Amino acid sequence: xxxxxxxxxxxxxxxxxxxxxxxxxxxxxxxxxxxxxxxxxxxxxxxxxxxxxxxxxxxxxxxxxxxxxxxxxxxxxxxxxxxxxxxxxxxxxxxxxxxxxxxxxxxxxxxxxxxxxxxxxxxxxxxxxxxxxxxxxxxxxxxxxxxxxxxxxxxxxxxxxxxxxxxxxxxxxxxxxxxxxxxxxxxxxxxxxxxxxxxxxxxxxxxxxxxxxxxxxxxxxxxxxxxxxxxxxxxxxxxxxxxxxxxxxxxxxxxxxxxxxxxxxxxxxxxxxxxxxxxxxxxxxxxxxxxxxxxxxxxxxxxxxxxxxxxxxxxxxxxxxxxxxxxxxxxxxxxxxxxxxxxxxxxxxxxxxxxxxxxxxxxxxxxxxxxxxxxxxxxxxxxxxxxxxxxxxxxxxxxxxxxxxxxxxxxxxxxxxxxxxxxxxxxxxxxxxxxxxxxxxxxxxxxxxxxxxxxxxxxxxxxxxxxxxxxxxxxxxxxxxxxxxxxxxxxxxxxxxxxxxxxxxxxxxxxxxxxxxxxxxxxxxxxxxxxxxxxxxxxxxxxxxxxxxxxxxxxxxxxxxxxxxxxxxxxxxxxxxxxxxxxxxxxxxxxxxxxxxxxxxxxxxxxxxxxxxxxxxxxxxxxxxxxxxxxxxxxxxxxxxxxxxxxxxxxxxxxxxxxxxxxxxxxxxxxxxxxxxxxxxxxxxxxxxxxxxxxxxxxxxxxxxxxxxxxxxxxxxxxxxxxxxxxxxxxx
Length: 732
Known about the structure:
Layout: H1 2-15, H2 20-38, E1 43-46, E2 50-53, E3 58-62, H3 71-83, E4 90-94, H4 104-112, H5 119-135, H6 146-174, E5 181-184, E6 187-190, E7 195-198, H7 199-206, H8 235-240, E8 255-261, E9 269-271, H9 275-278, E10 283-288, E11 292-297, H10 300-309, E12 313-314, H11 324-337, E13 342-346, H12 349-354, E14 358-366, E15 378-384, E16 387-392, H13 397-408, E17 415-419, H14 435-446, E18 451-454, H15 457-462, E19 465-466, E20 470-478, E21 484-493, E22 509-516, E23 522-523, H16 530-549, H17 553-559, H18 566-578, E24 588-597, E25 600-610, E26 616-626, H19 633-652, E27 658-659, E28 662-663, E29 682-687, H20 705-717, H21 726-731
Parallel strand pairs: 3-4, 8-18, 16-17, 19-23, 21-22, 26-29
Antiparallel strand pairs: 1-2, 2-3, 5-6, 6-7, 8-11, 9-12, 10-11, 13-22, 14-20, 15-16, 15-18, 20-21, 24-25, 25-26, 27-28
Helix pairs in contact: 1-5, 2-5, 3-6, 4-5, 4-6, 6-7, 13-14, 16-20, 19-20
C-alpha cells in the first residue's frame, strides 16, 4: 500500500491548488495531438487509442511493441468487443514515440489495481495519472501488462466510451431515444424502424462529444470476440517476409557499424591503433568511445572484419578479480552476516525453530542468464539539419527517445524515434539497460550519413543485461502431522522481490529476508523477472519438505493450500490431467510445481526420461493456468508454451559465468539454448476460467518449469539439484 499511497500523492500534487483545470486541459490537448498524429484523410481519432474511418475501419493505436507476444491481436479483440466493430475491418497500428501516447492506463492500473475511484474523482485521478505517465515517460512493453493493464483498464474503456458516443450521435441523427438503439458490426441499429447508421457516417460528429470516463463494460455472457481464437495480425508478415525488423531497415547512403567493447564490464578504452581496420576494403572510419571501439564501413561484413583486425587495449575498471565463485562467496557472507535490507512475512519462524521439531535447510543458487534474443541489437540513426531520427525495436520507445535526446544534446523536440517490431526482447531491450542507444546517437552526431549499428552475437552475449546471479538459504520445520510449522527464506540478489513473489501456502510463521547485492554486471529484467528465481527456490524446497515428511509432493502441497481457493483448483486440475500417481517406465520421473506470477496461477507437471549419459530428456509437460479471462485462447496457449520452453532451456543448460571479471560465454555454442530435438514432444496447456481479475500470460508459464524439472529428476534418480543449470550440476 505504501507504493500506491506515494504514487497517489504524487498525482495529487499535480491536481490540487487550483491546477485541476490546467491538468485536464493538458490531458485533452494530448488526446487532440494523438488524433492529429495518427488520423489521416477520412479518419477520426478518439480517446488516444482509437480511430474510425469513413469506411467503418476501426484502428487500434497500440502503445505496446510487437516482439512475438501477440498482444496486438488480443488488444484489438478487446477494443472490437466493447466497440462492436466489424472484425473484418479492424486494424492495428503502432503508436508513435510521442508523449501524447504515454500509457496512462498501464500506470493507473499498476498503481491502483482494481480499486474503485468515486465517480466525481475519476476525471481528476485520470488526468493526474496522465500527467505522471507523460512526464516519466511511460510506454513500456513488459511485465505481462499489455492485456491485463492496458487492455482491461484502457482499451476496453476507450471502446465502450466511443460506442456510447456513437450511439448518442446516432440517436440524434435518427430522432429516436438512445435506449432503443443497439450496436453490431460497426453499425448503430434501431430495430423498431429497421433503420441503421454506419460508424463511418457519424464518427466525425461523435468525436465532438465528451467521452464517458467510467462506461459500463460488457458482461462475459455477451462476448463476441473476447475468448475466441482469432488469427494473429502479425503472423502473415512474418511468414511472407514483409514484416520489417530493425536488422532489415535501410536508408540511402547508409553505412553499417559494429563494435568491440571492454571485455570486463566497467572497463574503458585505453588505446587502439586504427590502421589494421582501415586496411580492410570497405572500412571508412574507426570511432573511439569511452567503453568501446567502433568500425564504420560500407557493409556489416567489412565492419566486422575491421573490428576483428583491431587489438584495442582496455582497462578492467577495477573488476579483474571478480568471478562466478567470488560472487557466490560474497552472497554467502551477506546471508551469514544477518543484516538484511528488507524483511517480510508474518509470524516468527526463528521462535518456532527453537521449539524443536524436524527442521530442514537448503541453499539454492542460480546463475546470470542472458535473454538470447534472436535479433541482436540493431539501431539506425541519422543526424541532419539539427534533427536526429532513430529506427529500431525497443521495449520503451518514449524512454529511448529521451535518452537519445539527452546524449545528443538536441532536446526531445528535435529527436524522433521510429519504433519497429523486435526479434525478441525478454527484458533486454528496456532502454535503461541498452547501451546501444547512446552509442548509435554518438555515432550519428559525428557522421554525415545514416549509420546502422549492429552488435554482433558475441558482443550481445558478453555484454548483456542479465537476470541476476542470486542465491537463497531456506529453512523450514515440520510438525508431527507432517505439516510445515515455520518457513524462512534469506535471499541475496539485486532487487527486493516481495512485490512479485507470491507465497501461496498456509504456514503459521513465514519470513522472507532480502540481502541486496550489486555486481559489476548489469542486473536487469529477464522473462518473469524475480518469479523465475523464487519459483525455483520455493517449489524445489516444497518437494524436499514433502520427501522429508514422507508425503507425496502433490498431496503435501494440497495440505498447505486453503480449501476452495484458486491455487488448489489449479493444483488439482494439473495433477489429474497429468495422471499424477500412475506408473512410469523405469528411469523416468514426474515433478510438480505451482507458481503465481503477474496475476496468473500456473501449475506444471514435467515428465523426464533419464538418458544413458545421465541427462534428462523432457518428454511431456502438462500445464493448467488460471489467468481469469482468456482473451485469445490460441495465443494464450502459445505464450505459455513459449515460456515453458524458455524456462526449460535456462534450467537445463544456460549460464553466464565470469572469470577475471569477464564473461566466459560468447555465442550459442557455449551458451546453449534448447534446440528442437531437446524440446518436449507434448506441452499440454489448459485454462481455468475462474472469473478472477485478468492476469498476464507472456511470463507466468516460465517460473514453474525449472522446479518441476528438478523435482522430476529427483523422482527419477534420487538426486536433488539445488544449483542451476541442471546439466552441469548433475555431473558435479
